[in-house]
Amino acid sequence: MSNPITSIKLVLLGEAAVGKSSIVLRFVSNDFSENKEPTIGAAFLTQRVNINDHTVKFEIWDTAGQERFASLAPMYYRNAQAALVVYDVTKPQSFIKARHWVKELHEQANKNIIIALVGNKVDILEENEEERKVEREEAEKLADEEGLLFFETSAKTGTNISEVFLGIGEKIPLKGLENEHANGGLNVTEDQRVNLANTANASENASACSC
Amino acid sequence: MNIKDQYLDTTSISSLRSGVRPTKSQTSFNIQSRAQPSLSINLDNTIVQTIIPPVNNSLSGDIEDNSLLHSHPRLRSMQSISSIASRRTTRPNTSSDQLSVNTSFNPIIEQSFTYCNNNNNNIDDPSTIRTQDAAFGEEIRKDLIDRLAQSIYSYPTSLAGNTNEFKPVVSNEIPDVFINDNQIGSTFQSHAKNFFILTSAGKPIFSMFGEDKEIIPYMGIINTVVSYFQINESTNIKTIKLNKTKQTFAFTSKAPIILMAYSRRGETTNELMTQLDLLYSYLISSINERQLKRLFHNRSNFDLRNFLEVTDFDNLRQICSLLSNKLYPDFGLNALQCFVMRKNERARIHDTIHNLLINENKNIPRGTLLYGLILSYKRKMFKLCAVIRPKGHSLHTIDLQLLFSLITHQFENRDGDQELWLPICFPKFNSNGFLYSYIKYLSRSNSNNLGSSSSDIEDTVLVLISAQKDAFYKLKTFGDKLWNKLQSDKLNEYFIKDRFKFRISDIQAPLVHHFMYKIKKYVQYVMPEIEIHNDDTNKLNRYENKLKKFYGHLYNSVVDDNGLPINKTILNYLHWEEEEEEEVEEAEGNEIENDFQREKINMMGLIWITPQFELYLICNNGVNNKEIVLRSAKRIISWCKKYESRLFIQEGATF
Amino acid sequence: MSTRKKNILKVIILGDSGVGKTSLMHRYVNDKYSQQYKATIGADFLTKEVNIDSDKIATMQVWDTAGQERFQSLGVAFYRGADCCVLVYDVTNTKSFQNIKSWRDEFLVHANVSSPETFPFVLLGNKIDADDSKKVVSNKAAQDLAASLGNIPLFFTSAKTAINVDTAFQEIARSALQQNQNDADAFEDDFNDAINIQLDNDTNSCSC
Question: pTM, whole model, 2 decimals?
Answer without folding.
Answer: 0.80
